[in-house]
């Protein structure tokens, strides 16, 4: 399918549309997560009673009757998350969203604080693993990137750059030897940030890891590097009790 962007104007390096901005909360999920109650844990905590546009995005698998779950034309396994993210962005552009916040089912989001933040001032914002827009910083070969588990925003302008890339070949992590969605986003957008065609910033309030005290500024992520756990949905509810 060929996607054609709607008419826009560029102001201050950011792509602005001539209407109220549309924001999508895009939660990368899968059939396993839905079956295990991970989607319900999100629905019953940080999304509960919130008037926001959100969708859970799954790949190939059993059809769903849930109105908030979208089945994309991609595989549904972890290693295919870069392709799933590409399809999420295509879906968002087709539905004319201006900003996309991507997170996972094991991400707790303090939604009111997040949406009141300054994300609209940037094309790419999250918690980065180093200096932004400098090549060869990570593994001596890569741009830095915003953590996918902590969640990140991309603007419509950045989303089109990612879609135009047309490939997820830059997703391979030299250390882990597997494709990583957040690493891939950083490699696609890095050169545009370096040239100042896109704007980006790092914000530590996008929590990068497991918070034992359940504190959350914008987001908290259950799993972090070196702390691989089987997700316990009670963690989501405990976070909500602490932060709601």
Features of the shown structure:
Spore Coat Polysaccharide Biosynthesis Protein SpsA, Chain A, alpha/beta, 18% strand, 11 strands, 7 helices, two-stranded antiparallel ribbon
How many domain units? 1
Number of extended strands: 11
**Spatial extent as radius of gyration:** 17 Å
Beta-strand residue percentage: 15-25%
The CATH architecture assignment turns out to be Alpha-Beta Complex
Contiguous low-pLDDT stretches (5 residues minimum) are 1-17
Helix-and-strand structural type:
alpha/beta
Quaternary assembly: single chain
| CATH topology type | Spore Coat Polysaccharide Biosynthesis Protein SpsA, Chain A
First and last CA, distance:
41 Å
Describe this structure in words.
With about 240 residues, this protein is α/β, with parallel strands linked by helices. The protein has one domain: Spore Coat Polysaccharide Biosynthesis Protein SpsA, Chain A, CATH 3.90.550. Helices cover about 25% and strands about 20% of the residues. The strands form three sheets. It has a seven-stranded mixed beta sheet with strand order 5-4-3-6-9-8-10. A two-stranded antiparallel sheet has the order 1-2. Strand 1 and strand 2 form a beta hairpin. Helix 3 crosses helix 5 and helix 3 crosses helix 6. It is globular, with a radius of gyration of 17 Å. The relative contact order is 0.17.
């Amino acid at each position: 399918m060929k996607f054609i962007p709607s008419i826009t104007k560029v102001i201050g390096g950011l792509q602005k549309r001539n209407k109220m901005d549309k924001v999508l909360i895009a939660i990368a999920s899968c059939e396993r997560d839905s079956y295990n109650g991970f989607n319900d844990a999100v629905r019953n905590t940080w999304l509960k009673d919130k008037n926001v546009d959100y969708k859970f995005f799954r790949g190939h698998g059993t059809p769903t009757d849930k109105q908030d779950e979208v089945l994309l034309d991609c595989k549904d396994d972890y290693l295919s998350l870069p392709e799933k993210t590409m399809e999420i962005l295509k879906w968002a552009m087709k539905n004319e969203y201006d900003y996309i916040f991507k997170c996972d089912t094991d991400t707790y989001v303090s939604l009111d604080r997040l949406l009141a933040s300054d994300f609209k001032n940037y094309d790419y914002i999250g918690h980065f693993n180093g200096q932004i827009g400098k090549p060869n910083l990570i593994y001596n070969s890569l741009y830095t990137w915003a953590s996918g588990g902590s969640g990140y925003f991309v603007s419509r302008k950045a989303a089109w750059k990612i879609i135009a890339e047309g490939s997820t070949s830059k997703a391979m992590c030299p250390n882990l030897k597997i494709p990583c969605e957040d690493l891939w986003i950083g490699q696609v957008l890095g050169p545009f940030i370096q040239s100042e065609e896109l704007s980006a910033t790092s914000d530590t309030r996008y929590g990068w890891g497991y918070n034992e005290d359940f504190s959350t500024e914008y987001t908290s992520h259950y799993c972090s590097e070196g702390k691989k756990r089987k997700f316990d949905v009670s963690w989501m509810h405990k976070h909500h009790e602490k932060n709601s």
